[in-house]
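pls design
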């Protein structure tokens, strides 16, 4: 279980499982942000709709209860001004719903910092800051007025990001959906999705519309093994830092933060004064494997601890309190998608490739509009209907991802050791092979 759930005293009391067959207007598979936002907006749009969400474990068991808590405007999709605006609006929409529904998710919109700590990272970051909309370059002195990062050479800042407590967000969202009339069944694994029906060991749910909202778990569903790669990501969180350490580091606000390495890390300052830092660890296990309990190898904990101490030497003595891992869905072209087919009544969203906290809200609103036919401008955004090609079969998939991350790590090590002022050829090759458009 993640620290985020621990901090809430564990997941809430189990909700009932499905018992017997049922029918409804919309059946949703998966109670993470995507499924719950879709259910929430459908119910708010038309309170007469009968909406059922089916969840194999508990609401927020997946990435939605384990992530780094970046409510950011980033989306993996080629630049489009309308999509960018929709993402920016979605950050504010999540905050607005939290306020309206009384969801206490430690949400603070202080922006996001990306920090270069090697010459090669600096070269990439300066090039990024010139072209990236909404990002502004910060020289080290200005960065230090916010956060003092060891060896920082430059940073980029955007105001379009909030820090959240992920599990508090998903738990509050589940309650808000239920208040709006949504029925949520837990401990109910879906074993098959067909036209107008969802099968589980406890019964079948027949529905006019069915939505698959299982992101990183999608590969476990029949026929979906090569749809999205279940990518593992791991996080550690420290014990609360003493005031003396915080005064050395600064970071008085709640900016989210990352470095600019190829295998980058992501950080947040938690509401109770800890640092959470995440990264890819062991990114992919053979044949879509993942540890259902989110166990994190010692080597990953050591690597993340090392990164934290390099960025913040003042925190070197602060113990690590917890480590956990989760899975997120990565499409072959790293581009997220959302779709609903009126003819078959089937919809889906995901493949956010590590940027799902905000994107799931946009997906939920988009799906609700498409399902109810209520026509909104969101339906015309370029990611709607985007389906990338499938991943390669094993063992090519495993070999490819291992090679890609080995290349990124090697590139990061070489750039640091040699003080290179540019990316290595190997990292550019890895970008090419991975299909990543960075
Ligand atoms: C460690 C980590 C850090 C991350 N950090 C960030 C971040 O800081 N910012 C960001 O934007 N994104 C981040 N992400 C990604 C983001 O968390 C996800 O993209 C997002 O939560 C996906 O939400 P979802 O509802 O689509 O999927 P999930 O939250 O994974 O929910 C899917 C649900 O479906 C259920 N399910 C699966 N199979 C079945 C079945 N057969 N039957 C019934 N139910 C089923 C699962 O139990 C799960 O509850 C991170 C992800 C991880 C793992």
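designed seq:
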């Amino acid at each position: 279980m993640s620290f985020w759930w621990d901090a809430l005293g564990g997941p809430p009391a189990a909700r009932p499982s499905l018992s017997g067959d049922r029918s409804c207007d919309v059946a949703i598979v998966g109670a993470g942000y995507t499924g719950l936002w879709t259910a929430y907006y459908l119910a708010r749009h038309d309170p007469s709709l009968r909406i059922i969400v089916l969840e194999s474990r508990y609401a927020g068991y997946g990435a939605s209860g384990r992530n780094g808590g970046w409510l950011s405007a980033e989306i993996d999709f080629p630049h489009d001004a309308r999509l960018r605006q929709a993402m920016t609006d979605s950050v504010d929409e999540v905050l607005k719903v939290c306020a309206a529904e009384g969801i206490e998710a430690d949400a603070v919109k202080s922006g996001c910092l990306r920090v270069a700590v090697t010459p090669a990272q600096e070269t990439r970051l300066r090039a990024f800051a010139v072209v990236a909309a909404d990002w502004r370059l910060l020289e080290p002195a200005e960065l230090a007025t916010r956060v003092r990062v060891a060896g920082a050479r430059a940073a980029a800042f955007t105001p379009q990001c909030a820090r959240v407590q992920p599990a508090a967000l998903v738990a509050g969202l589940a309650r808000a959906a239920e208040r709006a009339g949504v029925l949520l069944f837990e401990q109910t694994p879906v074993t098959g999705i067909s036209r107008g029906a969802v099968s589980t060991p406890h019964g079948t749910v027949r529905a006019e519309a069915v939505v698959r909202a299982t992101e990183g778990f999608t590969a476990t569903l029949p026929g979906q093994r090569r749809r999205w790669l279940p990518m593992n990501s791991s996080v550690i969180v420290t014990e609360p830092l003493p005031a003396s350490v915080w005064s050395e580091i600064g970071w008085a606000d709640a900016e989210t933060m990352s470095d600019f390495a190829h295998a980058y890390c992501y950080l947040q300052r938690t509401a109770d004064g800890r640092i959470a830092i995440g990264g890819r660890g062991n990114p992919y296990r053979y044949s879509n494997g993942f540890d259902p309990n989110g166990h994190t190898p010692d080597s990953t904990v050591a690597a993340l601890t090392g990164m934290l101490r390099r960025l913040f030497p003042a925190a070197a003595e602060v113990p690590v309190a917890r480590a956990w891992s989760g899975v997120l869905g990565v499409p072959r072209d790293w581009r997220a998608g959302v779709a609903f087919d009126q003819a078959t009544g089937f919809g889906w969203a995901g493949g956010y490739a590590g940027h799902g906290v905000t994107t799931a809200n946009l997906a939920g609103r988009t799906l609700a509009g498409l399902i109810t036919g209520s026509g909104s401008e969101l339906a015309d955004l370029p990611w709607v209907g985007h389906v990338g090609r499938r991943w390669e079969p094993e063992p090519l998939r495993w070999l490819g991802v291992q090679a890609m991350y080995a290349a990124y790590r090697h590139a990061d090590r070489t750039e640091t050791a040699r003080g290179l002022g540019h990316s290595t050829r190997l990292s550019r090759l890895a970008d090419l092979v991975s299909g990543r458009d960075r």
